[in-house]
Amino acid sequence: MNIKKIYPALFFFLFLACGEHQHKDGRDHHEGKTGHKEEGGNQHAEAPHVELTPQQFKMLKMKIDTIGSRNLSDYIEATGELHLPPQNDAVVTTVVGGTIASIEVLIGDRVKKGQPLAYLSHPNIVEIQSNYVKAYSDSEFLREEFERQRKLYENGVGSGMNFQKAEAAYKASQGNVLALEAQVKQLGISVEHIQQGNISNRVALRSPISGYVQTIEAKTGQYVAPQTPVFEVVDTDHVHVDLRVYEKDAHKVAIGQKVHFMVPSSSKIELMTEIYTISKAFEENPRAIHVHAEIPKTDIILIPGSFVQGRIEVGNAKNMALPQTAVVEEDGKNFVFMADRQDNGWVFNPVEITVNVQDAGWVGISFREDFPRETQFAHNNAYYLMAEMKKGEVEHGH
Q1: CATH 3.40.630.10 is right for the domain spanning 76-86+235-316
Q2: Residue 85 to residues 187, 274, 326, 375, 391: CA-CA distances in angstroms?
Q3: Strand order in the sheet with 116-121
Q4: How far is CA 321 from CA 211, 267, 326, 347, 371, in A?
Q5: Which residue among 75, 154, 157, 179 is buried most deeply as judged by most CB within 10 Å?
Q6: What would the 3-class secondary structure string for 243-255 be?
Q7: Which residue ranges of the chain lie beneath pLDDT 70?
Q8: Cα–Cα separations (whole angstroms), residue 122 to 94, 103, 116, 274, 294
Q9: Architecture of domain 91-234 in CATH?
Q10: How far apart are CA 334 and CA 246, in angstroms?
Q11: Which helix (H) or strand (E) is 118 found in, with range?
C-alpha cells in the first residue's frame, strides 16, 4: 500500500467532514428567533423578526389577514368647556333693599319661570304700594273733575280756564300713577290687587327663567341692598360645547361638521353634536378661535364650566386601514408586522408605516414601499410582537 497516496486523500476527506460539522453546528447554535446567524466565522444580521410556534399562535389568538380599505374620518383634537347662552343663565336681584323673610328653594332645585325663590320685607315695600294707592285715588278724582269741566265747557256754562286746569291736573296725575305703577310691577305685585285695597308687607323674588337653582347668596334675616345678586338660576337644557381650535387648524373647521366630545368629570360616554357657530376673531395666548356646538338632550348631568375633550370631523376619505391593535409605536416610529407562514409556525417582520388618520378603533396607514395585495399582516397583538422582538435582540446581544 502506498502510504504517500493514502494520507493526502484521507486528510482531504477529514477536512470536508469537519467543515460540514462546523457549518451545521454553527447554524443550529447561533440562529435564534431574531434571525441572527454566524457562518464560517463571519457574523451578519438578518432583519429582526419574531417567530411563533403553532401553539403560541393559537394561545395569542392571532388574527392574520390582508389589508383592506375603509372610509375613515380625519379629526382635529380640541379642548374646551361647557357653556350656557346668556339668556339661559339668570342672576336674581332685588330692585329695592329689604330683609330676606324666607327662602323657598334649595340649591339644585328645579324651578319654573315666575316661581317664588324667596320673600323680601321692608317698610319701603309698603310705602311704594301706599303711594300708588293714593296717586291712583287722586287720579280717579281728577279724572271725574276733568269730565265734569269738559261737559260744562262743551255746553257753554263753564269757563275754558277751569276746563284747561282740570285737564292739566288730570294728565299730571296720570303720569304720577304710571311712574308708581312701574315701581309696583318691578316688585312683582299686581296693580289690580292694590287697587282693590290689598297691600302686601312682603314681595317675592321670582325666577326669570325655568331651570335649576345654581347658587344662593343670602340667608334668612339678612338685609340685601338693591341690585345685590341673591340667586343664580341656570337652564342646563341648552348647555353647549365651547371648543378652542388653534390657528393652524382654523381653516379646516366649518359649520355643520360633526363634533365628538366627552366630559370626563360627568361620564366616560362619548356624545356627538354639530358645529352651529364659529367665532370670527382669534383669542391670544395661544391664538385660537372658538367653535360652538349645541348638545342634544341627554340623561347625563352636564355642569356649565366642566372641562371637555372633543374631536371635530374635518374630512372623510378611503384609506388603507388596520385595527389599532395592529399598530405599535417604537422610538417615535409606527410599525405593523408582516406575517409569513412557515412549516414550523409563523414569522413576523416589522414594517415601518406612516399613520394618516385614526377613527373608531381603525388606523389609516401608508407604506414606504409597495407590497403585493395578497401580503398578510398581523391584525392584533402588535405590542406583544414588538416586545418579543426587542427581548430577542437583547438576548442575542448577550
Answers
A1: no
A2: 26, 16, 44, 55, 56
A3: 202-206, 116-121, 98-103, 223-224
A4: 47, 30, 10, 22, 14
A5: 75
A6: EEEEHHHHHHCCC
A7: 1-47, 73, 266-267, 316-318, 392-398
A8: 12, 16, 17, 50, 43
A9: Beta Barrel (2.40)
A10: 26
A11: strand 116-121
Return the closest-CA partner of residue 336 out of 315, 317, 355.
355
Cβ(107)–Cβ(205) below 8 Å = no
Of 336, 258, 242, residue with least CA distance to 75: 258
- Where in the chain is CATH 2.40.420.20? 47-71+318-397
Q: Concatenate the DSSP letters of all residues of 321-353 into one string.
A: EEEGGG-EEETTEEEEEEEEEETTEEEEEEEEE
Q: Cα(80)–Cα(309) distance, rounded to whole angstroms?
A: 7
d(CA 261, CA 377): 32
CATH 2.40.30.170 residue window(s) in the chain: 76-86+235-316
CATH for 47-71+318-397, options being 3.100.10.20, 3.40.50.2000, 2.60.40.10, 2.40.420.20: 2.40.420.20
CA dist., res. 136 & res. 177, Å (int): 6
Q: Which residue bears the cell 326669570?
A: 208
**Bridge partners of residue 69, in order along the sequence:** 320
Angle between the N-to-C axes of helices 123-154 and 160-186, in degrees from 0 to 180, rounded to the nearest 10: 150
Give the model confidence (pLDDT) of 126-185 as tens digits: 888 888 889 989 999 999 999 998 888 888 877 888 889 999 999 999 999 999 888 888
Residue 60, all three cell numbers: 395569542
Q: Count the residues in the chain.
A: 398
* Calpha distance 245→256 (Å, rounded): 15
Q: Whole-angstrom Cα distance, residue 296 to residue 311?
A: 17
Nearest by Cα to 323 from 5, 64, 77, 43:
64
What per-residue string of b and e applies to 121-137 under the rule 16 or more CB within 10 Å gives b?
Answer: bbeebeebbeebbebbe
Q: At 49, phi and psi to the nearest 5?
A: -155, 180
Predicted structure pTM score:
0.53
